[in-house]
Amino acid sequence: MIEHNHKAYTAQKKAVIKEFEEHFGLAPFWLVAAPSRVNLIGEHIDYCDGFVLPLAINRYVMIAAAPNGTSQANLLSTLFPDEPATVPLDEPPEAGEPYWANYIRGVFDGFREKGFWPLPGFDALVHSTIPLGAGLSSSAAIEVAAATVVEGLLGIDINPKNKARLCQRAEHKFAGVPCGIMDQFASIFAEKDHLTLIDCRSEEVQSIPFADDSVEIIIADTQVQHELSDGSYSNRRKQTEIALSILGKKSWREVSMEELEAAKNEMSDVVFRRARHVVSEIDRTQKAAMALARGKTHEVGELMAASHRSLRDDFEVSCRELDIMVDAAWAIGQEGGVLGSRMTGGGFGGSTVTIARADKAEAVMDEMSRRYKEETGIEPHIFATRAVDGVRLEEL
Ligand code: GLA
Q: Domain spans of the chain?
């Protein structure tokens, strides 16, 4: 059985406070923890008015911060200790070096755009346990953490949906990825022991209880880095827009599979396949959410398998390593304790998500690791997670 405890959270919190004190010579005033997410199903459809079903996981960006009485932010990241950033808070932020600070600059710019400008100066230490480029939305977590620090600084709580959009804007404008809203919504709205069902058209959020001790969520990082800012993500997004305009519809929610099939000859094969992924994935995600809401976890397996095939063959965002990892899980099979497995997140590398029976979870992880290593020569990073709460701010 896998032990889940809060030791890692507490240890990270202690570490970030200590590092802040060592670096800035005083105690921090706030501690913010923003989790990363894994998406169970509903991939590449958040920007298509679809549904997504993520949960926040026990990997966090934490920021310790304190006001510094100046008009600038002094930012240090333990991931890039040699690249501290000084950002003026009285002139419009611009993307630049160091690159890691762009997500935070983008958040500052979002506040500026909303009229909160200039911002009061502060010192901040950023610490993360989220693997980078693993498809677990480390960028959304840093944006959400930074926005929450600024809220603390200003003594305000902005509407959480506006906060998510502000963070999404930072990603679009300062990181060059035209992402949807899933990652920022998950990091903000997630609840412990729940999945977060997001209707990306109405932006309604529903928490679905998910505290079944008989299953574990396993994340397998292929250690093949994904890079969504290289154009492959925006290219997919554009293809879905082309398909929708050919279909003459305002929203993907108005498109049935029959209508799409009927319009097949009006679009290229690639655009048709992108569209087929969108329409089928919206349907699968609704079905999965309904099954999980009724506690029927075992019914989700086939939907996850179909989702992976669709992402691999129609949307073409998987890669050899992701396919090998997913195949490794399915080869273990139901008998061995695997209920479902698929790639998760943006793709082109990154991670897979697997639902496994709790009593077999450890053996499943070992076997996935063994098979993956045998075929790729790469040592994967595999861990189990529970659904945790969204972002929290603590006044210390
Ligand atoms: C990235 C984006 C999300 C979403 C996923 C794919 O994580 O940030 O908005 O589009 O890819 O589902």
A: 5-209+388-395, 215-385
Instruction: Give, in order, the Cα–Cα distances in Å from 166 to each of 89, 171, 191.
Output: 17, 9, 21
Tell me if 329 sits within 8 A of 341, measured CB to CB: yes
* pTM metric for this prediction: 0.97
Tokens 């997630």 correspond to 190
Residue with tokens 């994340």: 219
Architecture of domain 5-209+388-395: 2-Layer Sandwich (3.30)
Q: Is the minimum distance from the CB of 350 to ligand 1 under 6 angstroms? A: no
Q: Is the CB of 44 under 6 A from ligand 1?
A: yes
Phi-psi region of 87 (alpha: psi -120 to 50; beta: other; left: phi over 0): beta
| Model pLDDT for residues 120-132, shown as the tens digit of each residue | 999 999 999 999 8
In the residue annotation, 359 being an active-site residue is answered as no
Using CA atoms, how far apart are residues 296 and 209, in angstroms rounded to an integer? 12
CATH of 215-385, one of 3.30.450.40, 1.20.81.30, 3.30.70.890, 3.40.50.2300: 3.30.70.890
Residue-wise pLDDT for 54-69, tens only, equals 999 999 999 999 999 9
